[in-house]
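Recap from last week: sequence in, structure out.
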Amino acid sequence: MDCYIYYRVDVLHQQHVITQALAMQAQITARTGLVSAVKRRPSAANGLHTWMEVYRDIPDDLVQDFELQLQAALAQTDLSKLIQGERHCEYFVDAATCA
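Predicted structure tokens:
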């Protein structure tokens, strides 16, 4: 299962978002071994960029532990202070496993 988390941040904070999100993901990878990425929409809307954190191949039995690790790592950064609006988290499975 993959986890996708998206949120919006003022374009003025782009470098800070990158620094904070990568630091957070480094902590999560060190603790869980998960592969992760940080992405951004190519253009801004209303002065805000949409950012996406991606976490790949989370085993079903480790989702709760992943969420706890994510909350702990997020709390150690300034990322939450930069986000305007909500931080949306969604999980997806490969189509082949759904059939």
